[in-house]
Amino acid sequence: MTATSVTQVLGLYERLGDELYDEKVSQSSHALQCAALARSEGADDFLVAAALLHDIGHLLDIETHGPVPPKSGVNFSHEKSGAQYLSSIFPPAVTDPIALHVLAKRYLCAIDARYESSLSKGSRQSLIGQGGAFDSKECAEFSQQPEAINAIDLRCWDDSGKVPGLTVPPLEDYRSLLDDLVVI
């Protein structure tokens, strides 16, 4: 399955975005918080779009498999399916950080002993199914990826965008930004 339009992409959030991301926030709330954080830190439009759409693979999983409880430990590699889905309409500057954001978590766990303990309970649980912290060889390989820095920034917003009840701009506020980035 590949995206054919921004309307289709946003439609996934409109239909499935109320599903829980973790115990406290919905998929849509998490996506919007991450995009707002990226914008507030001066990220370019490509990275703001990546922050907004980084977990769209979870919505694709919900559409295909139904809701999966956050604590289930099931890993459908949402980062890969999401990046692949979006790659039909968005450039690599959007999709590559999405594809790498789980690896960025594994990298950060390896290089910063405090990082793993700062993760939410759900994120620590999913880390196990994602392969755990990188070893030194994996760290070296990840750090050579052209979008590694952007993926790390995205990962940090991903970790922070879980505040219940936080007021952020609505999904529709990002439509023109997304429309401007479409490459088809």
UniProtKB/TrEMBL annotation:
Residues 29-93 form the HD domain. InterPro entries: HD/PDEase_dom (IPR003607), HD_domain (IPR006674), OP_Dioxygenase (IPR052567). Coiled coil: none annotated. This is Unannotated protein. It comes from freshwater metagenome. The lineage of its organism: unclassified sequences, metagenomes, ecological metagenomes.
